TrEMBL record:
UniProt-listed Gene3D superfamilies: dinb family like domain
Domain spans labelled Mycothiol-dependent maleylpyruvate isomerase metal-binding: 19-155
InterPro entries, per database record: DinB/YfiT-like, MDMPI_metal-binding, SCP2_sterol-bd_dom_sf
Descriptive protein name: TIGR03083 family protein
Length: 281
């Protein structure tokens, strides 16, 4: 399944719109206000600058404009379980913490990212963390998700409300997660735990796109034709689902609020599947 014109238009429109909301949010925010257990407002902005800079570099086919030694090597060996290590290393070397300066850089890099994406087109593949393959549209969907998740963090710290458009969150599932699985995720999902010996099929359903079935066989996950009787079926509100994936909303809360529902022939296999198909939290 290729990137649709609607998805391509949506992601290119939503990225600058969400960025504008974020920059309004942080304009008067205390830079040292704690946002997460380890990051302040300023740290969060620096991280987003790094994400945008690496996106620009990937589309451009050049090293990132960041003062981080051996960053390309670090990016290539990073897995889901070591993304926090890479993030910490980047923030250790990229020391700018003046929020107005970071905001200016983030705006400029996002504009450049969008310009380069327009030139490259939605389907051009780039090599992401751990050798995973992504279309440019998926790279933009990842940036959009990062902007939304970390804006949610900042807003919560400031006791303000941040609304994630579920149609935007759906792009992370469809353009990033599914497209990366379809094109090959390299070593990104490697882990040291035991490999489940059987097959687990999981169908993902939301109102903003078609159902997608992912199947795990011998520890590797692939995209398969829609399965009418999957082991697990997940129906979800994409905004809640992405917040849950990244540890911002507890799984039990997501289920009790009926924003995420799990059914199927063998729903108890979902935790086994998610030990491989996981996100950093």
């Amino acid at each position: 399944m290729s990137v649709t014109p609607h998805q391509w238009q949506r992601v290119r429109t939503s990225v600058p719109a969400v960025l504008g909301r974020l920059l309004d949010l942080v304009e008067d925010a205390p830079p040292e206000r704690a946002v997460t257990a380890h990051w302040t407002v300023a740290d969060t902005m620096a991280h987003l600058c790094a994400v945008a800079a690496m996106g620009v570099a990937l589309v451009r086919g050049a090293p990132p404009d960041l003062p981080v030694p051996a960053l390309l090597e670090l990016r290539g060996r990073t897995t889901i379980d070591t993304i926090s290590v890479m993030n910490a290393e980047v923030l250790r070397h990229y020391r700018e913490r003046r929020v107005p300066v970071l905001a200016t850089r983030l705006r400029a890099d996002v504009e450049e990212f969008l310009r380069l994406a327009d030139e490259a087109g939605p389907e051009r593949e780039v090599s992401w963390l751990g050798g995973a393959r992504l279309p440019v549209a998926g790279l933009l969907a990842h940036l959009l998700n990062e902007l939304n998740i970390h804006s949610w963090d900042v807003a919560r710290a400031l006791r303000r409300r941040w609304v994630i458009d579920p149609a935007d969150a759906a792009l992370f599932v469809d353009l990033f997660m599914v497209q990366m699985t379809r094109r090959g995720y390299g070593n990104l999902l490697d882990h040291d735990g035991p490999v489940h010996p059987g097959r687990i099929s999981v169908t993902f359903r939301h109102r903003y796109g078609p159902e997608v079935t992912l199947a795990m066989v011998a520890g590797r996950v692939t995209v398969e034709p829609p399965d009418p009787r999957p082991d697990v079926r997940i129906s979800f509100d994409p905004a809640t689902f992405t917040l849950m994936l990244f540890g911002r909303v507890h799984r039990l809360r997501a289920v009790l609020s009926r924003k995420v529902s799990v059914s199927g022939r063998r729903p108890w296999l979902l935790p086994v599947f998610l030990r491989t198909m996981r996100s950093p939290s």
